[in-house]
Amino acid sequence: MVKKIQIDEGVIVQSSQMVITVTTERAPQLIDITPELEQVLEDTGIEQGIAVVFSNHTTAAIRINESEPLLLHDMERFLEQIAPPEADYKHNDFTVRIANMGEDECPNGHAHCQHLCLGTSETIPINQGQFILGKWQRVFLVELDRPREREITVQIIGY
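Given the sequence above, the corresponding structure tokens read:
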């Protein structure tokens, strides 16, 4: 979906929204989605602005960090340590839980607790048609629950 608004003589602000689908393989898992985001940005033609990258899930986060294999392993281990899957979570007790139950419900209290420490979105500035990211920075979808398809909404606003 693309929307254009003229705000001044010769300046047209554009808003573009797209959903990216990513298939995860395990949890925790950090998946570099930077190339997909760069393609979305290129497709919009926006040169100056901001992008909001938003996970449509409460057990999958969006984070910016470094893509170095040993660090990715450390971050996955850290997530498992702060909220271990095998710990006791009331959310996982299906004999008493009645709220927000789906057909594919599984014990995932740990994933919700891990998500609490990460967050749902990142905002990235855009200059000259490129994301402004540090030398080593990449954008990750962080799977916290189990393998499945995940949706990421990308909203880009600029001119």
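The longest strand covers residues 11-23. Try to locate this feature in the token string yourself.
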